[in-house]
Amino acid sequence: MFALVCVCLPCRCPESPRPGTVRPCRMPCKRDCIVTPFSDWSQCSPTCDAAGNIQKTKQSRNRVILQLPANGGQDCPEVLEEEKDCEAPKVCPGYRWKSHKWRRCQLVPWNIREDSPGAQETCGPGLQTRAVSCRQLDGVQADIGECLKFANTMPPISQRCQLPCQDDCQLTNWSKFSSCTADCVGVRTRKRLLVGRSKKKDKCKNTQMYPLSETQYCPCDKYNAQPVGNWSDCILAGGDRECGQGYRYQAMVCYDQDNRLVETSRCNSHGYIEEACIIPCPSDCKLSEWSNWSRCSKSCGSGVKVRSKWLREKPYNGGRPCPKLDHINQVQHEKHSQDCKTLFSILNSYCQQCPTYRISIFLHNTVQNIPRCSEVYEVVPCISDCSQYVWVAEPWSVWKVSNLDLKENCGEGVQTRKVRCMLNTIDGPSESVEDYLCDPEDMPLGTRGSRLPCPEDCVLSDWSSWNRCSLPCSYNNSRKRTAYAIRSPGEGRQCPDTTEKEPCSLNLNCFHYFYNITDWSTCQLSANAVCGNGIKTRMLDCVRSDGKSVDLKFCKELSLEKKWQMNISCVVECPVNCQLSDWSAWSECSHTCGLDGRMWRSRGVVQGSQGDGRPCPSQLEQWKPCPVRPCYRWQYSPWSECRVEVGYTTHCLILSLTLVLS
């Protein structure tokens, strides 16, 4: 195999600059790992339990990587966390609670319990208290903080009691519990006695109402209590409250050392743990006061006017909603741009003869000054006098000649004048207003071009207004206008024609007229009313055959029939808040034993909400767990061998009660 190699000699390279053979580059620097110093050692937790036994605990410290290594830099250390044993005391001081004797029962007066003044009571429900102190195991008094850290739960320091009334059953206080007969499986009892006349009263001898003895299992550390299942609904104390602080419940189970379900009383538990909870109170929709009404959207005939409220606070937690507003009279939206778009469509649908640009200007002037984005608008019909706004033209200016004939001293010229829209009052035009309020079709010219008459020309006056076409409109009819000579022409010259005619053309210079009735407005109430009796109104317009609203006088001159009723009475439904019944009594447990038992209660809707009233809450049922009880069943052993007793053949069956774990 042969290879052909071509070598380019330097003398044959082009004369362009020789490419560079050296360029700068960047060599990455090494980056070592950076770590923080070790933190301080964590605090040691208490090393003694409630029984005074030493517990081993640990304390730790750590450090954090601030920068990872790169480009061959020094690696990070492997140890980022260290632990060591806490120093344990040689002897743990034991602590226990010491409960002192209950004090006398103190009456809680009825006027305090019911928050209402009443007579002074001498009997009834009350409270009694007792002192609780902290002791070391040898009986020496200790600081209460030590018991809070090392001892069991502090015993209660208050309880309900009853000061007996004259007709009440009177009993002695409970005796102390008897000594336990056996560890973990024994029971203990306590007793009390009827005293005085109560011994002879039949109702006092009812041991279910007034038990004279009480038995409970002996305390035992071999039993273990723990919660099971979900938390119940939040349940308020008292049947008339709808919100505020309540309690929710979770069932407790008790297991023995063999992890078998036993009665919760063995764990000294009443079967529940409870936790405070809050049902938030409803907050109603809050709106501002109404703004002032805007001007009527039309300066001639029937239109609409607008006022607004803005949202101060949205409803939450089932509060009274914001007003439900209909599409003609009122409208509610969240965004400002959407407000303008919706109002435009309302105005356009209600006032179909309004020029589009006039509605746009009206909206611009109405909505632009509203300060918030969340607003409620009310749009109601209105009617405007067609002569309340008029065009007023100032006198024409002097001629400005643009093409002068020096020989004749005349030529083409222009005249100008100011034209303004003004509010028309009894005394005549008074003040200037926005041009959109006046009819653009009636706007006089502000500029005119013509020929400046030469000295020998005939000079005519301004043309008069066109006379009205006779009805019905027809091309066979015509209208005319006239002028008259102000200066006679010179010798040999003539005045132009002083009369102009044009045919009457429908919707160009001749119009038919008819009445137009608007739709009914929504129910309009008095100034401060929110519901009740009101009035619906509708407006009567005089409309030209081209669709333009004009002054009612045009229809009145034709003696057109008006057969419509303009006002009717109406009623706006008043807001009614939802009303609920009281909660029912708690149902029986759904299971008599096991872990799945639940109790339920319910309430019904007595009066549903109406109008803008506060709606009914969604929760019409509540549940809470039942106390957990173990399930038992009889277990049969096999029959024993047959034995004969006094001539009879007998089989023996041994029965035993078996605990079934749920």
Overview of the structural elements:
The structure is a single chain. The protein is mainly beta. It has a domain at 286-386 and 513-572. It contains five helices and 44 strands. Strand 15 and strand 16 (261-262) form a beta hairpin. Mean pLDDT is 77; it is low at 1-11, 325-344 and 346-373. Residues 33-92, 285-326, 578-631 form the Spondin-like TSP1 domain.
Write a brief structural summary.
The protein is mainly beta. The chain has 5 helices and 44 strands. InterPro entries: Spondin/Thrombospondin_T1, TSP1_rpt, TSP1_rpt_sf, TSP1_spondin_dom.
Structural class: mainly beta
Describe the largest sheet.
Answer: 5 strands, antiparallel
Report how far the terminal alpha carbons are from each other: 92 Å
Write down the overall mean pLDDT.
77
Number of strands: 44
What coarse outline follows from CA principal-axis ratios?
elongated
Fraction of residues in helices?
under 10%
- Low-pLDDT runs of 5+ residues are 1-11, 325-344, 346-373
How much strand?
Answer: 25-35%
What is Rg?
51 Å
Number of helices: 5
